[in-house]
Design a protein that fits this description.
globular; 3 helices; 71 residues; alpha+beta
Amino acid sequence: PERLAELASFIVMARHGEKVYPREGYRMRVVEGQHPASSTRIREALARNDAEIPYLDPEVRRLIGSQKAFL
């Protein structure tokens, strides 16, 4: 996570008016709104090795698997 924090700014979706708190050492942009995709649900589906994961492009899934990322 520290390496990513050095390289990237994170986009955080604030759903249902949730308060988003900054994390030291991380740059982020908060976007308010609704979207059915959820990084938590994607991680859970990856952990279960689901055959299909909504909102996750198959090429991105292959990259995640090859890099052991996102888990």
